[in-house]
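YtoQ family protein (Halomonas citrativorans), 146 aa
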Amino acid sequence: MSFYVYLSGEIHTDWREEIQRGAEAAGLDIVFTAPVTDHDASDAAGDHLGEQNNQFWRDHQSSKVNAIRTRTLIEQSDLVVVRFGDKYKQWNAAFDAGYCSALAKPYITLHSEDTVHPLKEVDAGAQAWCTTTDQVVETLKYVLKV
């Protein structure tokens, strides 16, 4: 079985690469996609549409351009992994999880036990909650090989 997996969320660690390496080592047939993970490029995604004098409107403009990629890749995916890191609040990740839920798109959350309570509704809609990238890979192995 082949799968398309979108890796959403936190951009400051190498969790995506860990999952990709694990899936490759397990011989899984997965195409991974992700948002733009270059923070500065993401923030400037809409700058070509015209200069904004207010940060709100710059962010608004760029978020709409980023949404073209995000929505398309989530809709095309078979499964989404949503990573919530410990250092920053990833509101975009929570939005992606909600979008998955609205689409009835299966998703897995990946976060530490420290954020169980604030993410209880997000986790309630997930098909699995993982605390390590190894758990994500094991879940993918089960889904694709059993």
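The chain has a mean pLDDT of 95. The longest strand covers residues 2-9. ok done for today
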